[in-house]
Amino acid sequence: MELTKEQEITQQVITEAWNNPAFKEALIDSPIEAIKNLTGETIKLPNGVDRIEVVDQTDSTCSYFNIPAKPNMDDVELTDAQLEIVAGGGDPTFPLDPPNIFDI
After folding, report:
1. Does residue 7 sit within a domain?
2. pLDDT of residue 88
3. Which of 4, 38, 85, 93 has the fewest CB atoms within 10 Å, i.e. is most exposed?
């Protein structure tokens, strides 16, 4: 499977951050500038987004929990899987297969 340009850039940035502590610090402090300096590519943020926040999640002794933005359900068409969840009384905005990080 061939990687998209975005995937290649992402891979390049992550690999550089793993191997170059100075780049990792620059990426955390000023991600758009650090990515441009490394790759020559300018990041174009979506409308309404004013920054990229980089969080160092390389500590293997810690499990990280990300809270995504709440989706705007106005004018959204549900997938068949989401319709099944709604028909069963579930919440279609909750991931279908969340990662098993809890020991329950």
Report:
1. yes
2. 76
3. 4
